[in-house]
Amino acid sequence: MICLGLTKHEVILRYIRDLAIGSKVSVRQIAKELDVSEGTAYRAIKEAENQGWVSSIPKVGTIRIEDDKKELEDLSLREIALIVEGEIISGHNKLGFVPDNFIVGASSKETLLKYLNQNVLFLIGDNQELQELAVKLEVPMLLTGGFSVNEKLMAQIIEKNIPLVYCPYETFIAITLINNAVSERLKIKELIRIEDIMIDNPYYLKPEQSVNDWHVLAEKTGHSRFPVIDSHNKVVGIITAIDVAGKSKKEIIDKVMNKNVLTTKPNNLVTHLSRLLIWESFELIPVTDDDNNLLGVVSRQDILNSFQQLQKQPQFGETIDNLTLSGFKLGEYEDGIKIFGEITQFMVNESETASTGVLTMILHTASYIAIKKQFRWNTQTEAFSLYQFAPIEVGEFVEVFTKILLLDKKSAVLEVELYSEEKLKAKATATVRMVKK
What pLDDT is recorded for position 16? Predict the structure, then answer.
């Protein structure tokens, strides 16, 4: 393919722009078809992504998207099918359909009647009664778990041209894949960044100073936590009231400070750091440049306040798991890691009890955090089973304990238990495959 007067970069961009919406785009494919190097192809694809012509979706790859001004988190049925590796069975002329909401078939028929309509996508397994309800109301469906519908229903679906996608994954995994895709898209939106809330020119201490210097600075400022920097302005630690408790005032800072420091960059998203705070117990986070020079500080409370403010702004999107877990904290117990927090109004269903989806998310995230905290590895869930023993009401304080039952070089089996008032309310087992970060 030769286009006179155009550079190879421009040729690739024109090629990508002319692709059909929903087409996959890969470095190797472009390099082969246009006879260019993979490096040239990669740079052009990144430029196309900046232009909004393509989008990278986890576990799917890079696909050509509509380059209009629709909201980035608006996923069409075509894109959803790609994300969940689904097969489009019916409604091929409605692939541009963008659901207003996702409804999971985990409630009673009477409850679902309040929410099902032709503007939502109904995620359902092999419940024939709910399948029939969806067909009656002509609701677009995503059938999870590799299940299908019977011949009679299929005939009605095709006759009514109801969008139907078969998905090989169970409902929880399908929701997770969709949620991750939305999260990836939201990263390129103009969200609040650390530099917007950090404190410039913060107070600090040096490693060679003494505990007495900490007391003097604490009394002067009213603060109890300070970054510690060396002679080159590099962050080397954090010192808090806990670190100096019981220590001689003559002890030097270097001997008592915490050298395990969580730092952040000024251009990082507030939502990203709020998620890390679930895993770590730091109250003060130094803001550094790429060379670890101190630029400022943010506190846990600053971040959570801005995070809560962010949720109130309709122009900013948030992922479901971030919203659910924003009030939870991390702790430890003798057998492993725990998270704890309150069940809020956001987490409950019409019966004012924690929904199955929320419980699944909390327990699943607890298992992820346990591996992340102990081994600094990311994980891919291979199997997850939930057992709910009793309803959990809004306002209840819950503790979620994670125990690693089996561990080898590539996988782990975990047991996760959720207690409220020392009573076991829910339990899960998870098998995860570990991917070193």
Answer: 87
Q: What is the largest CA-CA distance in the chain?
A: 84
Using CA atoms, how far apart are residues 195 and 313, in angstroms rounded to an integer? 19
Residues 370 and 183: their CA atoms lie apart, in Å, by 22
- Whether 342 and 432 share a structural domain: yes
**pLDDT class for 205, splitting at 50, 70, 90?**
very high
B/e letters for 315-347, b = 16+ CB within 10 Å, e = fewer, are: eebbbbbbebbbbbebeeeeebbbbbbebeeeb
Alpha-carbon gap, residue 87 to 166, rounded angstroms: 5
What tens digit of pLDDT does each residue of 363-376 get? 888 888 888 777 76
**Higher confidence at residue 90 or residue 184?**
90
Burial readout 162-195 (b: 16 or more C-beta within 10 A, e: otherwise): bbbbbbebbbbbbbbbbbbbbbbbbeeeebbbbb
Domain boundary among 186, 208, 242: 186
Enclosing domain of residue 360? 319-436
What phi and psi, each to the nearest 5 degrees, are found at residue 43?
-65, -35
Per-residue confidence band for 49, with pLDDT thresholds at 50, 70 and 90: confident
The Cα–Cα gap between 45 and 65 comes to 13
DSSP per-residue string spanning 337-369 = EEEEEE--GGGB-TTSBB-HHHHHHHHHHHHHH
pLDDT at res. 304: 62
Determine, yes or no, domain membership for 72: no
Nearest residue to 274 via CA among 293, 301, 296: 301
Distance CA 381, CA 280 (A): 22
pLDDT at 278 over 90: no
Cα→Cα distances 249→252, 253, 255, Å: 8, 10, 12
Give the pLDDT of residue 132: 93
Residue 12 lies in a domain: yes
Structural domains counted in the chain: 4
